[in-house]
Amino acid sequence: MGLSISDEKFKGRVEEGINDDFMRGAVRSAQERLQTNRLAAANELGNWEEWRSLGEEIRQHVLNNLDYYLYQLSENVSKRGGHVFFAQTAEEASRYIKEVVQKKNAKKVIKSKSMVTEEIGMNEALMEAGSTVVESDLGEYILQVAGDHPSHIVAPALHKNKDQIRDVFRDRLGYTGTEKPEELAAFARKVLREEFLSAEIGITGCNFAIAESGSVGLVTNEGNADMVTTLPKTQIAVMGMERLVPTYEEFEVLVSLLTRSAVGQRLTSYITTVTGPKEAGEVDGPEEFHLVIVDNGRSDILGTEFQQVLQCIRCAACINVCPVYRNIGGHSYGSIYPGPIGAVLSPLLGGYDKYKELPYASSLCGACTEACPVKIPLHELLIKHRQVIAEKEKRSPVAERLLMKAFGVGASKPGLYGAGAKMASKVVRPFLKDDLIHKGPGPMKPWTDVRDFPAPNKEPFRDWFEKREKDRGQKK
Amino acid sequence: MNGAIQNRDAFLNNIAGRLGRKPVVSGVARPDYKHKPQYDVLPNANQEELLEVLRQQSLSVHVDFFETDAKTLPGKLNEVVELYGGGPVSLWNDKRFGEFGLTPLIEEGWPEMGIETHVWDPEIGEKNIALCEKANVGITFSDITLAESGTVVLFSSKERGRSVSLLPKTYIAIVPKSTIVPRMTQAALKIREKIKNGETVPSCINFITGPSNSADIEMNLIVGVHGPVKAAYIVVNDQ
Hints:
The complex is a heterodimer.
Chain A: H1 10-18, H2 21-43, H3 48-64, H4 66-79, E1 83-87, H5 90-103, E2 108-111, H6 115-119, H7 122-128, E3 132-135, H8 138-146, H9 162-173, H10 181-198, E4 201-204, E5 208-210, E6 215-220, H11 224-230, E7 234-240, E8 244-245, H12 248-263, E9 270-275, E10 288-294, H13 317-321, H14 323-328, H15 339-350, H16 352-355, H17 367-371, H18 378-393, H19 398-412, H20 414-428, E11 432-433, E12 436-437, H21 445-448, E13 453-454, H22 461-475
Parallel strand pairs in A: 1-10, 2-3, 2-4, 4-7, 5-8, 7-10
Antiparallel strand pairs in A: 5-6, 6-9, 11-12, 12-13
Helix pairs in contact in A: 2-12, 3-12, 15-18, 18-19, 19-20
Chain B: E1 5-6, H1 8-18, H2 47-60, E2 63-69, H3 73-83, E3 89-91, H4 95-99, H5 103-113, E4 117-119, H6 127-134, E5 137-141, E6 144-146, E7 151-155, H7 163-166, E8 170-176, E9 180-181, H8 184-196, E10 204-208, E11 213-214, E12 222-223, E13 230-237
Parallel strand pairs in B: 2-13, 3-4, 3-5, 5-8, 6-9, 8-13
Antiparallel strand pairs in B: 6-7, 7-10, 11-12
């Protein structure tokens, strides 16, 4: 499917989202649960800020030395007998994977959940080549059977209710049971077990590769990635080029940040590192191992003011706290990457032509930045996008141009940020009533129609945050 | 034999160019990180305290938790297998089963009780996988056990198939008390130690924390999706 999940315009997508009452209710309760769990998991450590700082340090060190670590990773995968393919574009990546599948004359491919394979449109390429591609993550499987798209990067089928799932299973797979989640899952387990056992090729993403050992690390709760890497004879792992760490020591830190931030678990049920194909004498595991390292626009972000977005570990914590996502749902973003991270990343990977509205789909409340376990300044990057759009591309309405200029000048120079934020509250004033923004300018309108946002605070987020951190520090 | 590496130079040159410098393929040292919070978790806990943390956490991740000493281990293992509905049983071919006095149960006890027993055997090839798929219970030892998260760490080898902990309907990990460490940090250090000593990293390392589960349907927790639907840890006092 590629990065884009819809040809509809932003406004139409948002309207569809806000009229879907079930979806909005489901998103609200999922956000609440995930957020509560995340906070509990973070707070129990007692020094979460230190963990976040370490996460940030690790990610920045890797990005600044990315060529070195990718070199080391590829050497070590190769030493273990694995093949490494560096793909500059989505097409190159898909073509290579298709060639491997065709060489094996494989009819069935089983997958574990992977955003990057969605991004490169791999499933379509393989289906064109005549292979069946089966998703094995329960949520992804439901969407595949239903012919639908993910709306959340960790809980992809969040927008579907159990009755809809029962109906889809009944109509497409001959399911005769009830809508009880346990029963639906037991049915999927049985169907998918057969698929695992009969697939010739297993394809996984990669949460983090480990350069020093040439390993690929996979994180799931269902154990499906383990099935995919244990049973088929050929394994292909596909990774975004920035998703690696120097050693197991950094791996464990990032995994700890990921599982706590994504689902509030100390660790998920299955965390697995696979290194090359199986060794001589081993029975299970793949005979052949391929690692496909994908650029697809990422290198254009390196060395720019947006580089920090590449620190992302795809935990979705920012999505789970976002008031805009809460109201418009994942599909409104029109990208496989929704929420604040999607609003920053999608225009970079897919271009402003398609995604120019996304940086405005934010109230700039900064909750995303605060939630991010690797300290990506998400709301500041959104402001930078608006600045680029407003100043360079001249695409935004006049009100936004004014507003964002005020934000933008300050955001590029931290010292001026305070002044910019204070100016912003004046620029927004025409839309204010009782200190709430009732009618957002331009693209903000569809979601301010359903929700009033607090106006930019007299005390800007950054000042508030610093003060709060100071208070916290004193309490320690 | 080394695997192929394709398109690397152009790819890495482009990255280095974006970073505004020449490509670097050697000489980068891991930084001395300013923050080290991972060492602040259970820093001075003794083995008893770690066991208690493991017990609490195991229960919260839906693991059936048992404790025993070396002498009573065979009885306890048999009891848990029966609790899970008996055989067929699949096991690693691991010398620790012998060291912990389990050989008589595996080689005589269970067969006499009519419990089908399959010990992983590279000689029979893929038949191992079929047997695990049919098995009701898979049993392995834990190589490293993480107290904080309630996790058992398994190193694969030709005698220790990945399928044993994954394909059977239920899974039992035997946890020697001496394998318990505070958290994943210590496991990472042990694995790195192997690498530094020139040992080969196992082709598969599992960090398993309870039975498989999913919350993909309306955020309801469903225990038992693709992997085992039940999991037990039997901690053995080996000290």
